[in-house]
């Protein structure tokens, strides 16, 4: 079986952190005998190349200097930043369409697998018709909200894309329901698996910093945008600190034995937050941490390498994804970072929005709290960080759940089965 993946971006070199889930999916398919290749955009003149043994075909769409619509940030965010970026869009579509037409005249595929159907359904449709291949769409969720809230005039385009595809896939039940709002048809829910752990022995990894028994490390990983809800995590940490400070201010002479025990219990929760990722909210979040007096408790680590990310997970005591429904109505389509955290047996606290509920079952595979509620998040953090038995139980149950439902072997077999059934005569 020969498959061409169409995507906005793909790693520019081995070790590039772009779309790790896509890299893993293609590598796994190739390991099972599928000839999977990638068609994507160039970045500053970058030519076609072979990465991780994968043939990556890149199309040029503008002068080298300005070929920056993709890779460094989402194309939608880039388009919003200036007239030139908006001008790049028609060139992107024109040259992408021409290049994939020529490519599929020379190379025959069984399946054209299009990620980010807005706008790549055009490429996928042209490629499938040119090469007489089957066309499979994959929705990640956010593109549906762009159309619903900001680009409603493109809804007919998405309806056409969904209707005309030979099969449609998505990452969660939440995304599936959004697709059906546009056009009701069979949707195949096949999520991504975890992608954080490198092939390296734990003994070879140095911790980020010395870890004392009193220190409790909270970890967040993700793009720093409104829908991730990181401001509520910072507010929750401030509430925890305020509670500790309030108890420390009680006069020692007034302590009873029980009150001493209570203060000790709270003081033992010395929290430190590591925030991995970048985005437009970084500076406002840093300012918020300073305003709330927890600047010393929050480390903004930016983008990190796979090995550094692995170290962050190993050094954490709890993982938090305080996602929200943002002002545009957008939220988490799935939350792949939750799968990654649970493969490390970390207890997870998240909000019950979007596709998160497919992964986190309250008090089983993690803890769910109300979105935009820093008080509830602080209480959940204290409960997990102060009760080692409870935290361990959450981590173990979460690990068993994702190891069964979200392991890459299962996911890869589901993808192959869908491709095979799509190719079978109806």
User: Would you count the extended β strands for me?
Assistant: 14
CATH fold-level topology of the largest domain: Rossmann fold
Order of helices and strands: EHEEEHHEHEHHEHEEHHEHEHEHEHEHHH
Q: What is the 3D shape?
A: globular
Low-confidence stretches: 198-212, 250-256, 258-267
> Based on the structure given, which CATH architecture of the largest domain is correct?
3-Layer(aba) Sandwich
- What's the CATH class of the largest domain, please? Alpha Beta
- Largest sheet data: 8 strands, mixed
Number of domains: 2
Q: In percent terms, what proportion of residues is strand?
A: 15-25%
Helix segment count? 16
- State the distance separating the first and last CA atoms: 18 Å
Cα gyration radius (Å): 23 Å
Q: What's this model, at a glance?
A:
With 426 residues, the protein is of the alpha/beta class. It has helices spanning 20-31, 75-79, 83-106, 117-131, 142-150, 155-164, 173-182, 230-248, 257-267, 282-291, 306-315, 336-343, 356-359, 374-386, 388-405, 408-423, and strands spanning 2-6, 35-41, 49-51, 54-59, 111-115, 134-139, 167-170, 188-189, 215-221, 270-276, 298-302, 318-321, 348-351, 367-369.
Task: Tell me about this structure.
With 426 residues, the protein is α/β, with parallel strands linked by helices. It folds into 2 domains: 2-193 and 407-423, 3-Layer(aba) Sandwich (Rossmann fold), CATH 3.40.50.2000; 202-405, Glycogen Phosphorylase B (Rossmann fold, 3-Layer(aba) Sandwich). Helix content is 46%, strand content 16%. It contains 16 helices and 14 strands. It has helices at 20-31, 75-79, 83-106, 117-131, 142-150, 155-164, 173-182, 230-248, 257-267, 282-291, 306-315, 336-343, 356-359, 374-386, 388-405, 408-423, and strands at 2-6, 35-41, 49-51, 54-59, 111-115, 134-139, 167-170, 188-189, 215-221, 270-276, 298-302, 318-321, 348-351, 367-369. The strands form 2 sheets. The protein has an 8-stranded mixed beta sheet, with helices on both faces. The chain has a 6-stranded parallel beta sheet with strand order 11-10-9-12-13-14, with helices on both faces. Strand 3 and strand 4 (54-59) form a beta hairpin. Helix 1 packs across helix 16 (408-423), helix 3 (83-106) packs parallel to helix 4 (117-131) and helix 8 crosses helix 14 (374-386). The longest helix is centred in the first third of the chain and has 24 residues, at 83-106. It is globular, with a radius of gyration of 23 Å. Mean pLDDT is 87; it is low at 198-212, 250-256 and 258-267.
